[in-house]
Every structure is written in C-alpha cells, then in structure tokens.
Amino acid sequence: MAVERTLSILKPDATRRNLTGKINARFEEAGLRIVAQKRVLLSQAQAEEFYGVHRERPFFKDLVAFMISGPVVLQVLEGENAIARNREIMGATNPANAAEGTIRKDFAESIDANSVHGSDAPETAAVEIAYFFSGLELVG
Ligand code: CMP
User: Which residues belong to the active site?
Assistant: First the structure.
C-alpha cells in the first residue's frame, strides 16, 4: 500500500452544528493525518467548478446551493491508502445506506447535507487538492 493524499471537505451542515472536531477525530483515529486545512465560504463559481462533473445531474443546482450555504472546511488527508480509507470512514453517499460507525451514518442529515466529501480516485484527488491548495500549504 502506498501513502496517498486525498481532498476532504467538511460540509456546511457539519460546520453549522460545530462538528468539525468530532469529524477530525474520526480521521485521526483511523490513521489519517490532516496535512492542510482551511475554513472558507465557497463562491457559487468555485462550487460549480469543483462539482463540474455533476453539472448535468438533476441534483447539481441544489448541491451547489447547499455547498455555499455556510462555511466549509477544506482539508488534505494523508496516510496509507488514504483515498479508499477515507471513503470507508465516510460511509455511503446517502446516509440512509451508510454502514454503522461511519461519519455519514452518525452525522449526516440527508444526501446533500451528508457532512463530508472525499476524493474518489487518485486522479480526482490530485485535481481536487490542486484546486484548493498550493504545494506550500501541504505540510506533512
Ligand atoms: P459528494 O461526495 O460531495 O459528491 C457529490 C455530492 O452530490 C454528493 O456528495 C451528495 O452530497 C450530492 N448528491 C445529491 N444527490 C445525489 C445523488 N443522487 N447521487 C450522488 N450524489 C448526490
């Protein structure tokens, strides 16, 4: 297994309910290291570009509206097999399908307000990390 980096976003439902520390503890307890982190309010243009792959999907408008409805925490997580490991810890996209003990099972409110985003593959992780962070901001 290789050491990887993945982009993580703590979504507006998580910041609104003051859950960032609880969610970060899940990552750290699972062996992932937060090597970059910043709290920002995304613009509509940034959210639309970041989720551009979903532009034609029926949920795109609601997704973008939700992602700009409050602050998010952008993070880079590092660790062995970090991309798949983070997806395991997060659980299924729809919290109704998420396994016991996962972040989305324990914290998510709905499929949009599902508390966290994580990159789904090495190529997307590289693009997503570069979208929000410069190399200087990643401190492993
Ligand atoms: P995320 O991992 O951030 O990637 C895209 C987001 O779109 C997803 O989490 C969900 O919050 C949201 N979404 C809303 N409806 C759907 C859907 N039917 N399928 C996938 N993602 C959806």
Answer: 117
Residue to substitute in 93, 103, 116 for testing ligand 1 pocket (most ligand atoms within 8 angstroms of CB):
93
Q: What is the pLDDT of residues 101-114, one digit of tens each?
A: 999 999 999 999 99
Q: Are 104 and 115 in contact (CB under 8 A)?
A: yes
**At 75, is the secondary structure helix, strand, or coil?**
strand
CA distance 2 to 106: 29
> pLDDT digits over 46-81, tens only?
999 999 999 999 999 999 999 999 999 999 999 999
pTM: 0.98
